[in-house]
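Tokens as discussed.
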């Protein structure tokens, strides 16, 4: 056992009055710190950390304790060695937001509704950490510097120049570029800001607890600075492949959440300022990828360069005339046109309507289970709802309650995944089909009207004390669209009203019951 791990075990023993029954090293992250999951004889776990920089460790320990006092969702510090190079913190589990979004990334940015909900929950929480977390914070504890300023901007821009730009062998006038860099740095720091700048806010640094709530880690590089930076860092993460529509909706969610903590600038000003930080963050990331990829020869960072360049290309196209740095913008345009950064041609679609049917586009089955909640009943009830999916070829389901049935919805007007070979053996419960339907969007518009009608009907049935209501969704084979619709209505009604819901996918021989539970206020 090396001395540092022995030191960590001694810290654990002094804290727990016992030795860990098991110590497992966790996969390496981008930093030089090492993390271990330390398990007690009773099965409880904590995370042990071994650092190489006392200043960096001190920053994390101080910030974590400060944020915990502010009741923010961060790991709690449990014990610290005298030299602060070893510490113990609470274990937030194994699932990061990055892991939870795996399917959407692999689908080329086609995030399903559950993944979008995780993103919305996370982006709404960010202002709380940035604004509430900054109150009472002594920024002198931050590492390597306490504040985002012109010097730090110029450092990162020159990092981009020397570690990425020069490695490409693009011809440029260094003095002209430096003059534009200084203008850019001045603009980025023009507005004073009293918020906490996370600096490394990305999906890998957000852990999800047992209820799927976001918790923040690895904020030791944070400092006083503008809140725009973290939003740009998160939404323009190159590998995430967030589509523009999703980015816009997440910016909207963030903007409205920020209003709860500070007086925000008008939307036009907010978007213009954000664009500056998106450009800055893109160059900063390319600098990091250049150093880690071109110089350290780490393949992950080399592979990250093409999507980052695609981000830059899209930004230049969208921001034509927006950035008042003519030489820098001309240089960046020439950079994106270099042969090694030319956009790759999209793989040929095997269908004229744009849906890929290659074998590698099929994802492992992953039924989408909604959280179970329930409410108090106003009528005699309790109301129980039954939701069917079926094939019109085999007839509309009979109502076993004797009430004569309820609603029957025809899903056949929406786009049918069953027409495409890779989806023929899957159902509306499988992740590839879910992505197909949600990416197409027709089924979502269809269900909006269904939800509106069903919500009103269920509410009145509860008020009147009725005990049974049935909804049926039919499609050609009772396999894809009807199954998706029935499952989602069942989950929706259970979550919103807390009533017991039975969902029966008749042609698939699948039945599921969502039990009644109190609805959260």
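Sequence:
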């Amino acid at each position: 056992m090396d001395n540092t791990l022995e030191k960590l075990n001694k810290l654990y023993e002094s804290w727990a009055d016992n030795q860990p029954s098991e110590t497992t090293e966790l996969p390496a992250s981008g930093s030089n710190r090492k993390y271990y999951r330390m398990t007690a004889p009773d099965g409880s776990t904590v995370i042990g950390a071994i650092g190489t920089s006392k200043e960096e460790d001190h920053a994390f320990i101080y910030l974590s304790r400060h944020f915990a006092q502010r009741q923010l969702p961060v790991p709690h510090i449990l014990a610290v060695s005298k030299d602060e190079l070893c510490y113990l913190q609470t274990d937030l589990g194994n699932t990061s937001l990055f892991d939870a979004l795996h399917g959407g990334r692999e689908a080329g940015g086609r995030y399903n509704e559950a993944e979008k909900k995780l993103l919305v929950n996370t982006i709404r929480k960010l202002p709380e950490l940035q604004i509430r977390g900054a109150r009472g914070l002594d920024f002198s504890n931050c590492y390597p510097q306490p504040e985002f300023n012109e010097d730090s901007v110029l450092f990162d821009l020159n990092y981009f120049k020397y570690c990425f730009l020069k490695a490409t062998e693009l011809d440029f006038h260094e003095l002209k570029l430096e003059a534009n860099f200084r203008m850019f740095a001045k603009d980025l720091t023009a507005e004073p800001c009293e918020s906490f700048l996370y600096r490394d806010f990305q999906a890998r640094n957000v852990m999800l607890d047992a209820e799927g709530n976001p918790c923040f880690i690895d904020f030791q590089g944070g400092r006083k600075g503008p809140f725009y930076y973290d939003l740009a860092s998160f939404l323009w993460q190159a590998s995430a492949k967030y589509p523009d529509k999703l980015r816009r909706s997440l910016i909207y969610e963030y903007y409205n959440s920020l209003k709860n903590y500070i007086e925000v600038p008008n939307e036009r000003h907010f978007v213009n300022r954000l664009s500056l930080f998106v450009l800055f963050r893109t160059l900063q990331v390319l600098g990091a990828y250049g150093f880690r990829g071109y110089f350290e020869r780490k393949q992950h960072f080399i592979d990250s360069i093409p999507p980052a360049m695609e981000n830059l290309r899209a930004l230049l196209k969208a921001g034509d005339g927006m950035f008042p740095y003519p030489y820098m913008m001309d240089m960046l345009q020439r950079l994106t046109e270099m042969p090694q950064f030319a956009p790759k041609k999209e793989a040929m679609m095997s269908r004229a309507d744009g849906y890929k049917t290659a074998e590698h586009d099929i994802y492992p089955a992953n039924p989408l289970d909604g959280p179970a909640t329930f409410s108090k009943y106003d009528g005699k009830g309790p109301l129980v709802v039954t939701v069917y999916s079926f094939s019109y070829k085999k007839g509309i389901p009979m109502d076993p309650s004797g009430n004569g049935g309820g609603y029957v919805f025809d899903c056949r007007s929406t786009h049918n995944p069953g027409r495409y070979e890779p989806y023929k053996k899957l159902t509306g419960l499988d992740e590839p089909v879910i992505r197909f339907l949600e990416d197409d969007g027709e089924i979502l518009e269809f269900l909006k009207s269904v939800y509106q009608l069903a919500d009103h009907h269920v509410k009145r049935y509860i008020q009147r004390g009725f005990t049974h209501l049935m909804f049926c969704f039919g499609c050609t084979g009772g396999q894809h669209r009807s199954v998706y619709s029935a499952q989602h209505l069942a989950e929706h009604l259970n979550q919103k009203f807390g009533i017991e819901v039975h969902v029966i996918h008749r042609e698939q021989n699948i039945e599921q019951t969502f039990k009644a539970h109190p609805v959260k206020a």
